């Protein structure tokens, strides 16, 4: 079977690597892909938002399955375009992907169906938002309603910061139309956990847990990014926590979407906060997380294509989802200055050090192939991932592996998973 993956980041590289292990897959294409993906797939010069061109390509090449990696095309309705043309595609339709595309929608859904989440209000008027903030308890969280590359969340410690945040999101339009409406919600404290789930519209199966590090600098300082590293599993996601989430969050979310006529088929990413009052939903995403996919997929024992087909066919309940009894840590190598100003075009060396190195991976995020070799082409450049028998060993392996890759302007956090040392 031929498959097509839509996207160009580290997540799509991880998806491609898992697809390459499937006995069902003969050829892999990726649109538009990157320099790392090009080593295991044929990259196609079609942008992720060019839906008709993607569908034309899938028809012309007799693609057996298309996997949508990115949020923008899902929220934009690429799955609907493919399905109307009789093409097999993995991902939620537009009316289901809204669970990520609109934070106001997802918060209203949780309120309506009693799914645990932070108290909140939605605002389309900046003056009304500021009036509400003047009576609110600090710290408080401001979220752009729409897609903002994982960066449209502001944690404000004072009223002045919160008012400035409203200006940033709604008036200055730092994230464009994503800030036309905002969600203001209570600040929750606790451990964060990310759980990716396979869904077939009726059934939902959670994968192993993970935890992302969003801030740019060590000690969770600096600006929010798309993710500077992650580890799996989370030691705080215990069996009792999982049982609670399955009963009160995962299945109720599937049931709620079905009740709304928005059957969710694909990957549901559930961002959790483990509060003193129990687990609560921070956010939903409608696809694999990045960089969560880089630590979850390498630990999955199942054939990924089998599981995706079961989701599309509505028979996920027949799948026994299994993961290795180990751990993985991903450290993102970024360009100095990310997520603000940074230079591109820096030559990367050291990839040969990972050849035939079992349990070690270099997932490309922002890279480009040139005549001089592979160069940096983004803020997040690579995700260096390593497994270990436990989190401590996986973390040591991952940081040792980061030394094998070199490029000018290389930057990384040095404390991914460091809190684990305290456990």
What does this structure look like?
This protein is an alpha+beta fold. The protein is built from 12 helices and 22 strands. Helix 7 runs antiparallel to helix 8. The longest helix is centred in the middle third of the chain and has 21 residues, at 239-259.
Entry summary:
By secondary structure, the protein is α+β, with helices and mostly antiparallel strands.
First-residue to last-residue Cα separation: 45 Å
Low-pLDDT runs: none
How large is the radius of gyration?
A: 21 Å
What spatial form do the alpha-carbon principal axes imply? globular
Strand content: 25-35%
Structural class label: alpha+beta
- Residue-averaged pLDDT, rounded? 95
- Assign a percent range to the helix content: 25-40%
Instruction: Give the number of helices.
Output: 12
Number of strands: 22
| Major sheet attributes | 9 strands, antiparallel
